[in-house]
Amino acid sequence: MRSVDVVEDAFILCDAGRISAVGRMRDLDPLDGDVEELDGSGCAAIPGLVDCHTHAVFAGSRVEEFELRSGGATYEELHAAGGGILSTVRATRAAGEEGLADALALHRSWMLASGTTTFEAKSGYGLDRDTELAMLHVVREAGGSPTWLGAHAVPSEFADADAYLDFALAEVLPEAATIAEAADVFLERGAFDAAQARRYLEACREAGLRLRLHADQFTEAGGVPLAIELGAVSVDHLEATGPDGVRALAQSDVAAVLLPVAAQFLDRPMPPGRALVDEGAVVALATDFNPGSAFCESLPLVVALACTQMQTAPRGSPRRVHRERRTRPRPSGPGWASRAGLRGRHRPARRLRLALPGLPPRGKPRRQDHPWRHAHGIIGPCPVASSAAAARSSSATSTST
Among 86-90, 131-135, 196-200, 286-290, which is the least confidently predicted range? Predict the structure, then answer.
């Protein structure tokens, strides 16, 4: 994780959206035919960033809660009073699929500007059949990896969590499993307990979905051992995870996805990133982009927080936002196998997912500096080349991972 290969004065040659060659400019043979060149002199061509935990499909705003939180209200108090997640549920249900698609397009443009070329996004702000399925459709149509977060909160029309799970597993899961690639649950005090999470996850696994968990954000409630037992792909948050949980994750194939923006915003302890790395756990970083506790789409900022607040090494941290979260082979949902292993590196035959931090969009002058750059490394205007719209050839200083 701490090894970064740097190729100076480099080129990346692309054809039909895939990388065909990488190397030093002096080794590039003359090219035949029409070649479009993008000059990235002085920049670093990094693999497009991978955001493996977002809630990027939502409507409405939670700005009024910021004042309440500034006055001392906690996340759990806001949730219990019908704010938080349930506030966004009301606005998201009212938006309709077209409105949600527009919202995701806006949020996706922000993510692209920060270098994110591959993203996961969850449902969980509908908590009914039609809105949950619409959210999954919107993510899939936008090229993201959709996760059914059907067990995010208990909507007000249900008496308790068990009654809601009866509905979700009978009425939503059968169709959600044909759209989503994974299922997720919020295992936490005030949401779903370990027994309820097990019921939900086992049903989703039986339907062919990969498993993820939100766990240990506020309390250690059994999320880590459950994730390991069920063979989950990841367990996310981990602000409250203690030494036993760290050691257990290090001895497993379950990835620890750390979300430092949420911890910072909610004034929570940071996840034990340094301890997880030292013990040898699989560690990934993500934004947790959402309207309430982490309104942030910038993975570069996440990397900076990981380095400064969790003491993860600067050379290792960027690697944790360059690769999709995969460990051992697992049953895959629609489309997952076609993406697995094809992103996160500049290598021939891989799809072009490229970010050039500091290079302005075409037609705009290059800025000499950016006020945020001194705060955290590679933030700033960050044009992204996707496989659908990539130039056939680009020349730049390349950071190869």
Answer: 86-90
* pTM for the predicted model, two decimal places: 0.80
User: For residue 369, what is the domain's CATH number?
Assistant: 2.30.40
Whether residues 357 and 236 share a domain: the answer is: no
Domain co-membership, 354 together with 318:
no
The number of folded domains in the chain is 2
| Tens digit of each residue's pLDDT (9 = 90 or more) over 18-36 | 888 888 888 888 888 888 8
Q: Is residue 2 very low, low, confident or very high in pLDDT (cuts 50, 70, 90)? A: low
The mean-pLDDT minimum among 25-29, 77-81, 159-163, 359-363 falls in 359-363
Q: Are residues 42 and 54 in the same domain?
A: no
Residues 27 and 173 occupy one common structural domain? no
Q: Tell me the angle at which helices 223-230 and 243-250 cross, rounded to the nearest 10 degrees.
A: 10
Q: Which of 313, 270, 234 is nearest to 1 (CA)?
A: 313
Among 359, 372, 363, residue whose Cα is nearest residue 298: 372
210/90 same-domain check: yes
Range of the domain at 158: 50-339
Contact (Cβ atoms closer than 8 angstroms) between residue 151 and residue 160 = no
Instruction: Tell me the three-class secondary structure of the chain, residue by residue.
Output: CCCCEEECCEEEEEECCEEEEEEEHHHCCCCCCCCCCCEEEEEEEEECEEECCCCCCCCCCCHHHHHHHHCCCCHHHHHHCCCCHHHHHHHHHHHHHHHHHHHHHHHHHHHHHCCEEEEEEECCCCCCHHHHHHHHHHHHHCCCEEEEEEECCCCCCCCCHHHHHHHHHHHHHHHHHHHCCEEEEEECCCCECHHHHHHHHHHHHHCCCEEEEEECCCCCCCHHHHHHHHCCCEEEECCCCCHHHHHHHHCCCCEEEECHHHHHHCCCCCCCHHHHHHHCCCEEECCCCCCCCCCCCCHHHHHHHHHHHCCCCCCCHHHHHCCCCCCCCCCCCCCHHHHCCCCCCCCCCCECCEECCCCCCCCCCCCCCCCCCCCCCCCCCCCEECCCCCCCEEEEEEEEC
183 pLDDT above the threshold of 70? yes
